[in-house]
Sequence to fold (298 residues):
Amino acid sequence: MKTAVIIARFQTPYLHEGHQDLIRQVKLEHAKLIILLGVSPISGSRKNPYDYYTREKMIKTIYPEIIVLPLSDHPSDRVWSENLDNLLKGVFPTEHFCLYGSRDSFIPYYSGKFETIELPEHGDYNATELRKQYADKVFDSTDFRAGILYAYYNQYTKVYPTVDIAVFRNNKTEILLGKKAIDSKWRLIGGFADPEDADYESAAKRELTEESGELQTSDMVYETSRKINDWRYRNEADKIITLLFSCDCYGGEAEARDDIAELAWFCLADVPQMITSASINESHTELFNHLITKYLNK
Fold:
């Protein structure tokens, strides 16, 4: 008889009844069963929160006799199919296989040499909704707290992209600066880029509007980028790298909005003394030095 192979992700906090029905149905038809777990190239995400080892242990706890193997995602369906076939034949060179999947599974993308069988859905189960149900639950257990540590320590160290904007007027002799309520020092307008932003120029335009109102400006011009020693991340492995843009303002009144408590125009020629007197946010010093060198000392 052929060896059954279920190809799935099982990205859920437990094997729900639909999963177990699928496994039981396949086991009735085959003496041997292998489960291939899809492995995402992204370490920890909302769609793929559980790594291979966590899902393997979840399956083995209920079905210790089932062989579980990892199968990495690949951008090419053809290469992924070849990798799947080579994995099975490399581990079990004398066996023949039948691949099982449900609706919306791997089957439309598979171009390998093994037979595929599509199984009907088992109940009204939705992995995304199940993950959402558990996403905001807090459990008072050592295992729960240990799981949080495991998740964070197995993520890639991240860089958070931000944008800062030097808004000029009067032939670049004046610059718009802001203060946040949490900080008494002047700084550039800016903030974090969002996944919805089409590009960093769009992010800069959005942040400028959110924090200073509907100013009429020229297009955003890229200036430079710097790692920012933001106080929130000074003791963290994750860091901020910002992209500095500039634009010219030719209309509109600057109005402090969002988390900006105060806005004011300053002579660019006064900024070096502001840096010396520590009235400029120190995390933006390198950005201001770039602007001074380019526009004031030209």
The first strand starts at residue 3 and ends at 8. The longest helix spans residues 77-91. The mean pLDDT is 92.
